[in-house]
Amino acid sequence: MARLAAVLALENGMTIEGEAIGAIGAECMGELVFNTAMSGYQEVLTDPSYKGQVVTFTYPHIGNYGVNDDDVESDGIKASGLVVHELSPTVSNFRASRSLQSYLEENGVAGIEGVDTRMIVRILRSQGALRCVIAHGANLDHQELVARAQAVPSMSGQDLTPLVTTGAPYQWENSEAQRWDYRPEQRGDGARKRVVAIDYGIKRNILRRLSHYGCDVTVVPATATASEILAYDPQGVFLSNGPGDPAAVTVAIHTVRDLIGKRPIFGICLGHQILSLAVGATTYKLKFGHRGANHPVKNLLTGAIEITSQNHGFAVDPATLPANAVMTHVNLNDNTCAGIALNNAPAFAVQYHPEASPGPHDSDYLFRDFMKMM
Amino acid sequence: MLLYVWQSFENYFATETHGKTSYTMPKRTDLHTILVIGSGPIVIGQACEFDYSGTQACKVLREEGYRVVLINSNPATIMTDPNVADATYVEPITTQFIEEVIKKEKPDAILPTMGGQVALNAAVQLHEAGILAKYNVELIGSKIESIHKAEDRELFLHAMLKIGMEMPKGAFVQDLEAGMEMIDEIGFPAIIRPSFTLGGTGGGIAYNLEEYREMLRNGLVASPVQRVLVEESIIGWKEYELEVMRDTNDNVVIVCSIENVDPMGVHTGDSITVAPAQTLTDREYQHMRDASLKIIREIGVETGGSNIQFAVNPANGRMVVIEMNPRVSRSSALASKATGFPIAKMAAKLAVGYTLDEILNDITKKTPACFEPSIDYVVVKIPRWDFEKFHESDNSLGIQMKSVGEAMAFGRNFKEALQKALRSLEQKRFGFGFDHPSYNDITPLEEAELVPLRSNLRKRTSASIFDLCDALRAGMSTEEIHSLTKYDPWFIVQCKQIVDEALELVRATHNGLTLSDVSTSQMRRLKRYGFSDYQIATILCASESAVRAQRQHLGVIPVYKTVDTCAAEFESETPYHYSCYDTENEAIPSDKKKVIILGSGPNRIGQGIEFDYCCVQGVFALQALGYEAIMINCNPETVSTDYDTTSRLYFEPLTFEDVMNVIELEKPDGVVITFGGQTPLKLAQRLLEANAPLIGTSPEGIDLAEDRQRFGDLLARLEIPCPPWGTSVTENDAVDIADRVGYPVLVRPSYVLGGRAMQICYREDSLREYMRTAIAQDPSRPVLIDHFLENALEFDVDAVSDGETVIIGGIMQHIEEAGVHSGDSSCVLPPYNIAPSIVETMRQYARSMARELNVIGLLNIQFAVQNEVVYVLEVNPRASRTVPFVSKATGVQLAQIATRVMVGEKLADIKMPEFNASMSRTAIKESVFPFAKFPHASVFLGPEMRSTGEVMGMDSSFGRAIVKSHISSGNALPLTGNVFISLSSHDKTTRAVKTARGYVELGFSILATSGTSAFLSQHGVETTSVLKHYEGRPSIIDQIANGDVQIVINTPIGENARHDEAVMGRTAMKYKVPFFTTLAAAEASLHGIKALRNESFTAISLQDHYASSGA
Questions:
Q1: What is the rounded distance in angstroms from the CA atom of residue B814 to the CA atom of residue B494?
Q2: For B179-196, what is the mean pLDDT?
Q3: Which of residues 335-394 of B touch A (CB under 8 A)?
């Protein structure tokens, strides 16, 4: 049974033939990146930070355990498309509600399978993230697809938060199943804290973890001002993850600058970059980013190593950190900045994902520290 | 600088990081000498994976500047190569001998986590005997408390409950009554697990009360502490393993997750396993990861690797902990090879104080080792069983491990990895079915034919995977197969994809499709699904070579990917490759001089670690000469598949197709086929035809030695005697030949390996019976009939030849007479009680045969000596099983020298010493058998090889050496007590009387069966007559069970051992009573007992042995 053909076209002129998966014929373009996690494709695809990106999964079997209603990081697939070696023809897991294929169709997301994903990773590794287009159908014009790939806007300079942030403030209602309640011994049983989370594209597991540790979270849009936020009289402010170039999220940078020192602040990923930018550091685009669930990070204060979940294409330049900010965590693979803290105000942030999902729970302690700070 | 916000962090870490306050822990400088304990002989459940881990550990500790002392009784290992450690003790791994080593070498620390259960048990015993404290030796890697907590099921259970982990319901019982009381609570089927046994020995699954009682009783006996865990069955649940590493700073990483295709109920060593886990969501995987971190911390494994096993109920995800091994294991070897993360090497570094962030990733050399490998391929491991060696045993699988080896394969999907692994097993299967014309029959099965299939699917056997193929071919639904087999539906559907793809081609062939009609895309899809050319050829009724040619014509050729720990995220430096049919090839051949060595594939009885030893020695020799040494092998347990050992590693099946693909890519200067046993030799002819640059003895020479007719002619020409022989395909011809050559006759199918299906016939009726069976099996294959030289002495000679000069490396005398397979026989080097002229004759014969066969490299010859006449039994112009033993005994690295010869050096320049038959020490090789695993198999030795491993005892005399070899093989000789003797009529000789008298003179009392008792009494040996098993009770069996018998001498009647002899043999095995089935062995032990009574023993390193003899 021959499937519909598909082509992945890259801005560098390469075209790779495979077979169509997902929503047939749906428009699919973006920055081609790769993720090395061996499990957690559902969490990755629903992570709003992947907005504008086409994800290549390095693990060759994707879709094995289907998708379920719980393991989502937002209300649907946020990645622009996906590239896999082989999409599972079947689903095997007691929690699965449907196949990844039908989930892609529901979400109108297209992809390609049957391609040499490892070759793609090696290309991205040496040439950096590339803009791409995936098209379905027979007899496609490869040159035209390459031209379309070249026309995809560059990630640099793009503020993508408006595409994924909440339209209006809302109160997070936790509905996490008991069975996934890891670290139950650290559940916040004391007085609950009021926290405002600025949503640049927030992952649900961040909200679940904040709630677990005892936060009552109000989620506000990325454009919320400091005064709007302070009007909630929060005991702490959380800066979320999100897509795009952090330097382009200028409103948020101003807002955070206004909040520093007024309330304890904790940032993750884009939130980390925004906090850094707010205190005067600069960010830069990494060649091909960090996306996976196995990146070692060293906590420079304790010497302990955390295996972390990561997803970022930009990084903070530690050389530009001002005197009131200190690098607290370092990525051991390439010595990039993985976390900072201010020493004149209660604010800290990490580049990686302590909420995991997917990935290891080694860095979960950061949520607890945020609680302690408030 | 204490940061404002970090005050809370500090608090956190003071309370939450498990009491560790020091943040850096440099390499320990207080340690100078470290003793590494090996795992002893290869047995089922403990194979060469511990040679791999131990070799890595020794290597890395020396690189770190420590003085390394090693003890391992197994001479076939690479780790006991005298260059691996500073002092190498091939001595018994017992408290007594380890103490001797400690006295001499004064180690500061012992690393007990590299040598499997043997080393851990030795460490516990050293601790309990107070020796660690007495000599102030520290255990590194694992502490006694951790070992106890992990190994003692009761302590483990408490530890798990403490940290909130669930385990199957159950309890520990110390006696039968308590066990019987538990059964109501746990229900049937019930699992019985004896404490402190290896590979599940003595355990089982009971389905009814009677079976339960029996297993409970056996389990209590098998357990050294008479304790058994009885527990709820979780048969059919999904089984997972996680490989975990921890450092002194409490950093923990998961190296690899492994999912068993066979669900709970089959020992993981007997399961088909896949890495990484395939059917866990990230939440479930992280739940398991969290549990593993908690477990390793609670058990307290301070540094190094551990293996933790879990079971998951597929219906609801309930997860229970099964067990934890606080050491490197078979699974960690697999995980190391599967991921490229060398667990043993890292564990050794962690044991001396490094932390994970201080060590570089071995493969990228850029990123640190404190990460979790991400893999972008699928790895499948399939065990290899040798049930046909143990005729009376069925091929059912359970919680006791029975496999003797395994093969592993990489693929870019499960289908490809599974099919590659199946053809790697070398069991005449070339994939997941469709490798025999019968698969081309697509007539739908009748309902009645499905009945036996369903029944097969319910059982777990060594053939289950092919039953699955049959079920899929028959169109059985995934749901039905799942309900019968409990295989996860994901695996079933993957297998269904293979079958569907094959059936599509079968149907097309029925409709007239031929090879040339197959499209490029279909060919590529077939190859991506892992089909071998052989399978495709079988379906298309074409030849394999035609498929190969057409495939290449279509441009469908494999590319090679790199195993790099990081899914290509970072550049890697280590050339460790596997094939697939993707787009990009990453294996770029160098322009250096290079030689490919073909490995020996999965371990099996008759072909194991000895051949891996030779391959690795070949690698070392080539590298020393500046060659790139490229290895092709598929056995994950071995040193040869350590990418750190070879210059370049292709982890591939050893089939013609896969080997030739690598040869065509690499274009080597030479290919070595004579080190890996039969595996590469079987490819010789085809590789030659494909113009592969084979080096060493030509396939023509090899064939000449194997072809009985031509070899017989050659011997006649050289005037070298051999036993008269003939070949026959009919019963009557066979009888005629036997009449001509004279009884007894040794019969076997031609071209046998490891003596399979060999038998000695003393009379015409048994010969006729053998022939009828043989002809029924394969009427086309001739049977070889040799006159059997009864009571002859047998010798093994290993030599090296460069085509001009032939130098003898070693001559070994078998302790058992001819008739016992040379791989099972004990042997002694140098020969004892034999005239120098006989030895000289053997040397001469060896030289002339080597020249005549134009041997370039290694050569092994078996001689028999009867009435002062030297007969040639067999010549093998290749590495033999005895090469490592000879090398260890003499200090001459035969395999390395042979390699140098193969690439053109001359022996005259190498200056290899000729074997000195009057050397000052004696080395004895003793075999180790897996009878405990096959309770229904005969324990009597014969022409069919059944041992799994060997030990060496070496000392200044025969008696002293045999004492050591007996201790090492688990049959320590007694000083006093009762010797039970039962002689066959053949053996009622003066020799027997002399032997019995010898025991009496040493103070033993003799017990004997009535016939033997009468015979011995007649000849003046005082005996007590005892009842045979069938004669009534109390019988000899009861006396053995009661501990009243210290030695059993039972020479079985010529052919099939009588029932009671079999029972006696098993009983002796069970109660670990030395059991001799030949008079020769009984005599040899007399020397040992004398030495044991009169002399003191110490441990002597190989290096000291060699220094004292100047070797």
A1: 51
A2: 87
A3: 355-357, 367-368, 370-378
CATH superfamily, domain B169-232, is ATP-grasp fold, A domain (3.30.1490.20)
**pLDDT tens, position by position, B483-519:** 999 999 999 999 999 999 999 999 999 999 999 999 9
Does B488 reach chain A within 8 Å, measured CB to CB? yes
B453 within 8 A of B474, measured Cβ to Cβ: yes
Q: Rounded to whole angstroms, how far apart are CA atoms B675 and B806? A: 18
Counted across chains A and B, CB pairs separated by less than 8 A come out at 223
Task: Provide the residue type at B43 as one letter.
Answer: V
User: Known catalytic residues of A?
Assistant: 269, 353, 355
The per-residue pLDDT of chain B, averaged, comes to 91
CATH number for the domain formed by residue range(s) A161-373:
3.40.50.880
The residue ranges of DSSP E strands in chain A, in sequence order, are 5-10, 15-22, 28-35, 53-57, 61-62, 81-84, 86-87, 110-113, 130-136, 170-171, 193-199, 215-221, 236-239, 265-268, 283-299, 305-316, 325-331, 337-342, 347-350
B17 touches chain A (CB under 8 A): yes
In whole angstroms, give the CA distance from residue B1004 to residue B1044.
12
Contact B25, B302 (CB under 8 A): no
Contact present, B471 and B459 (Cβ < 8 Å): no
DSSP line for B340-396: S--HHHHHHHHHTT--GGGSB-TTTSSSBS-S--B-SSEEEEEEE--GGGSTTS--B
Q: Are A222 and A251 in contact (CB under 8 A)?
A: yes
Q: Is the pLDDT of residue B5 over 50?
A: no
Where, residue-wise, is CATH 3.50.30.20 in chain A? 5-151
Tell me how many degrees the CA angle B84-B404-B172 measures, rounded to the nearest 5. 100
Per-residue model confidence as pLDDT tens digits over B1047-1064: 999 887 654 455 667 778
How close A180 gets to chain B, by Cα (Å)? 7
Q: Is the complex ipTM higher than 0.95?
A: yes
Q: Where in chain A is the domain with CATH 3.40.50.880?
A: 161-373
Residue B8: the pLDDT is: 42
A5-151 fold: Glucose Oxidase; domain 1 (3.50.30)
**DSSP β-bridge partners for residue B333:** none
* Cβ-defined contact of B278 to A332 (cutoff 8 Å): no
Residue B597, classed as helix, strand or coil, is strand
What is the spatial distance between Cα A144 and Cα A137, in angstroms, rounded to a whole number?
14
Q: Which residues contact B422 (CB under 8 A, 6 or more apart)?
A: B382, B429, B430, B431, B432, B465
Whether domain B33-149 has CATH 1.10.10.10: the reply is no
Contact state of A304 with B584 under an 8 Å Cβ cutoff: no
Taking the model in full, what pTM does it have?
Answer: 0.94
At residue B516, φ and ψ (nearest 5 deg) are -70, -10
- For A93-149, give the DSSP string: -TT--B-HHHHHHHHT-EEEESS-HHHHHHHHHHH-SEEEEEEESSS--HHHHHHHH
Q: Which helix (H) or strand (E) holds B786?
A: strand B783-787
Tokens of B137: 């030796």
- Picking from A33, A48, A53, A73, the residue whose alpha carbon sits closest to that of residue A355 is A73
Q: Which of B335, B635, B380, B334 is nearest to B491 (CA)?
A: B380
The shortest CB-CB distance from B568 to any of A71, A118, A361 is to A118
Residue identified by tokens 């739908």 is: B444
CATH number given to B793-919: 3.30.470.20
Distance from CA of B461 to the nearest CA of A (A): 24
Q: What is the pLDDT of residue B1053?
A: 63
Count CA atoms closer than 13 A to B662's CA, side-chain side: 28
For the stretch B991-1003, pLDDT in tens is 999 999 999 999 9
- Nearest-by-Cβ selection for A333 from B8, B11, B367: B367
* Cα distance from N-terminal residue to C-terminal residue, chain A: 60
User: What are the residues whose beta carbons fall under 8 Å from the beta carbon of B1072, sequence distance 6 or more?
Assistant: B970, B971
